[in-house]
Specification:
The protein is of the alpha/beta class. 57% of the residues lie in helices and 12% in strands. The protein binds adenosine-5'-triphosphate (ATP) and magnesium ion (MG).
């Protein structure tokens, strides 16, 4: 998770879609061509050497030097172009994603020109570099064909001057003409493949660095058995920062959350509430200190077993462009979705009535990122999704901020009535949201400011 948040998604998308295709067409295929050209070259050359050693020697040294000269001359340019191609193709995707992602602002601000220009700024150097490399790999062909033809004509002239006349040299000349006809394209293929490979080196490096991040070892294993959670979640002197160069987000946090409690977290914006939840969810590891479940420290090995307990409703709920039903039963194959359970979750999230009014009901399509729904509707689908999972630790990060007071109250009441085997953690800016919590924690700019009942923390303060 920390690698993903530190990296731009355009890089990954480009690496997976464009650069892997490029590795196949510009590295793997040319490598095979290079190998077969080499075999052909050796065959043709040895035949020519047996026919006439001097002529074969002159021809091979001549062509060899010519191509070597071209390679030396263009070498730097190809490397630079290769880098430009790799960088600018990522920029192209980035400017597309950003322009389309913020389309509402683009239209209101009339900044279409700016985003088009940004795309052009990446597109033009990309096309130029790619075209340039293509030119470098193709153009010697024409020169070499001309040189080859001149060479044969010269050879015919020289030989015809010797004793025996034209009649005796026809077979030798014929063999060389035929040889050259195969030889020149083969050398060109080998050279072209070499420049292709060199021109895609930077893209290959990017693909390899993506491949260097294998899926974690648990990815192909079935869902782990949940780690026992009977007593409490503990944070012991926990500190966290995102990188060595950034300030501490959390410092020396001591916290105990008993199973079955409702815990509210408040604090000024940027005080690290979402970060603290990411640590509790095992997405980020503490920089210092310990995070334990029933006194068992959570680390990379057992974080999956802990996550099996958790359902999370984030600040910005992510919906896929599919039906309401598939968004509530998220990540579950269509035919395995439990209809009853979906309806139940929707009811608890106070959105069932609304969905049933829609023409397609649970089969309504929500649009890309849920664009056809209002913010509050999206949030309630997110809540329904968490409830559908049937997890026993529910984590709400500002999950009700877009709801009106009355709807929020109804959602919170439904959540509070869920049964005491569930542990619920809530971040809220609106303090009334936390009314039903047993414990309220106020986070200051790098630690716990105070912790106690809703009465102690909220009411006494005001
Ligand atoms: P809000 O109430 O606005 O949601 P928050 O309390 O949830 O705020 P966090 O999102 O936890 O705040 O952020 C805490 C601090 O960590 C902020 O100062 C933020 O700049 C920083 N931060 C958050 N994510 C990253 C990241 N990926 N890399 C570096 N710093 C980050
Ligand atoms: Mg937050």
């Amino acid at each position: 998770y920390s690698i993903h948040v530190a990296r731009n998604s355009s890089e990954v998308i480009n690496g997976i879609i464009t650069k892997t295709t490029m590795v196949i067409s510009e590295i793997i295929k040319p490598t095979l061509i290079l190998i077969s050209s080499m075999i052909l070259l050796v065959g043709i050359m040895s035949a020519l050497f047996t026919i006439n050693t001097t002529v074969a020697l002159v021809a091979s040294i001549g062509f060899g030097l010519l191509y070597l000269g071209v390679v030396r001359y263009t070498h730097q340019q190809i490397s630079e172009n290769s880098q430009t191609v790799a960088e600018q193709s990522t920029q192209m995707i980035k400017s597309l994603q950003e322009g389309l992602g913020g389309i509402r602002d683009v239209i209101i601000d009339g900044s279409q020109q700016f985003y088009c220009q940004q795309y052009r700024n990446a597109d033009l150097p990309f096309r130029q570099a790619a075209g340039n490399n293509r030119f470098i790999s193709e153009y010697p062909r024409f020169v070499m064909e001309a040189v080859g033809m001149t060479l044969i004509a010269g050879l015919a002239y020289l030989m015809s001057q010797q004793a025996g006349g034209l009649a005796t040299i026809i077979p030798v000349l014929g063999a060389f003409a035929l040889g050259a006809q195969r030889l020149i394209p083969t050398i060109q293929h080998a050279y072209g493949s070499y420049t292709n490979i060199k021109g895609s080196k930077s893209s290959l490096e990017d693909v390899l660095s993506l491949l260097d991040q294998p899926l974690p070892s648990y990815a192909d294993q079935p869902r782990p058995i949940p780690i026992p959670f009977e007593k409490a979640i503990h944070l012991n002197k926990l500190s966290f920062r995102y990188t060595k160069d950034t300030p501490w987000v959390l410092k020396n946090i001591d916290l105990k959350i008993t199973k079955g409690s409702r815990v509210g977290l408040m604090g000024v914006t940027g005080s690290g509430k979402s970060t603290l939840f990411d640590i509790i969810m095992g997405l980020l590891s503490p920089t210092d200190g310990e995070f334990t479940i029933d006194d068992e420290p959570i680390n990379a090995e057992n974080s999956r077993a802990w996550q099996a307990h958790i359902a999370h409703v984030p600040q910005n709920i992510y919906l896929t462009d599919s039906t309401i039903e598939e968004n509530i039963a998220f990540g579950i194959p269509r035919e395995q979705i439990n209809q009853k359970q979906v309806e139940n979750a929707a009811k608890q999230a106070q959105i069932a009535e609304l969905i049933e009014e829609w023409l397609d009901g649970y089969q309504t399509l929500v649009g890309e990122r849920g664009i056809r729904l209002s913010g509050g509707q999206r949030q309630r689908i997110g809540i329904a999704r968490a409830l559908y999972k049937g997890a026993n630790v529910l984590i709400f990060d500002e999950a009700t901020s877009a709801l009106d007071d009355k709807t929020e109250q109804a959602v919170m009441e439904a959540i509070e009535g869920l049964g005491r085997e569930l542990t619920i953690l809530i971040i809220a800016h609106r303090l009334t949201t936390l009314k039903g919590c047993d414990q309220v924690i106020e986070l200051s700019n790098n630690g716990v400011l105070q912790s106690g009942s809703f009465q102690d923390v909220v009411i006494k303060k005001s």
